[in-house]
Amino acid sequence: MKLIECPRDAMQGLPDFIPTATKTAYLNTLLQVGFDTLDFGSFVSPKAIPQLRDTAEVLAGLDLSATRTKLLAIVANLRGAETALQHPEISYLGFPLSVSETFQRRNTNQSPAEALADVAAMHERCEQHGKTLVTYLSMGFGNPYGDAWNPEIVTDFTARLAALGVRIVALSDTIGASTATTIEPLFSALIPAFPAIEFGAHLHTTPTTWREKVAAAYAAGCRRFDGAIGGIGGCPMATDELTGNMATENLLAFLAEKGVDSGLNATAFGQARAAAGQVFGFH
To answer: How many Cα neighbours within 13 Å face the side chain of 117?
Structure first.
């Protein structure tokens, strides 16, 4: 079981800038919990995501001396990837490849074909630098634009990524459109079809629909889940109304019901949740 905590996704759409020192202190708290990976920031245009314009400064303040957690940074183009590659502390680069052409253009100002070409180049550069590319198939369960979506389209995108040698693919429910009836069949088809790929679930959800989504992905064999403490966040490039991330607390509750050891330090998680409440203003 791999749990990926996503403070980057939690922060990116917030209108009020969180001071760099506050971000750094919060991330250092998260690094003590024992998550597999911390999606900590992004190297994208500050005009597009002003909240994360200080990612390099935040990175410089992180204490990585006593953590097993690996760092992931989101990039939107080759220029951002080259910047991220200059930081040896970063293990993973994440790129949002959309199965919706409308969203790809809104998010990275590219066609899907151009984005796939970038994925190929990024994967090659990551291999050269000893890093791993994580490709997010955004709008992986549908989109609000009327663009075509079906499981065959997702499978075709995955096949193209497999041909490039991409090893981690996260199916991303960017707007909370997924249901158990779309999640389970998709994972059930993809996981055995592409054994060289580690599949993850990046599910946005409402407080009342989270359980069915997690249960569907888990039943289909997914063992990599993204979450954000408090269920904060959403993609400001997708729709005007943000649908929050999967709450990490809910993921942990589900695993506990299944008798699965999350591998996290419960005391450190409690401290991190208290810190999140102060950063994001919830109890």
So the answer is: 6
Sequence-distant (≥ 6) Cβ neighbours of residue 218 within 8 angstroms: 254, 258
pLDDT tier at 234, thresholds 50, 70, 90: low
101-127: per-residue pLDDT in tens? Answer: 999 999 899 999 999 999 999 999 999
- Would you state the pLDDT for residue 37? 98
The pLDDT of residue 162 is 98
State both tokens at 204: 């946005």
pLDDT digits (tens, 9 = 90+) for 62-102: 999 999 999 999 999 999 999 999 999 999 999 999 999 99
Q: Are 151 and 116 in contact (CB under 8 A)?
A: no
Write the DSSP string, the chain.
Answer: -EEEE-HHHHHTT-SSPPPHHHHHHHHHHHTTTT-SEEEEEEES-TTT-GGGTTHHHHHHT---TT--PEEEEEESSHHHHHHHHT-TTEEEEEEEEESSHHHHHHHHS--HHHHHHHHHHHHHHHHHTT-EEEEEEETBTB-SS-----HHHHHHHHHHHHHHT--EEEEEETTS---HHHHHHHHHHHHHH-TTSEEEEEEB--TTTHHHHHHHHHHTT--EEEEBGGG----TTT-SS--PBPBHHHHHHHHHHHT------HHHHHHHHHHHHHHHT--
Separation between Cα atoms, residue 4 and residue 225, nearest integer Å: 6
Mean pLDDT, residues 28-49 taken together? 97
Question: Which domains are seen in the chain, by residue range?
Answer: 2-280 (3.20.20.70)
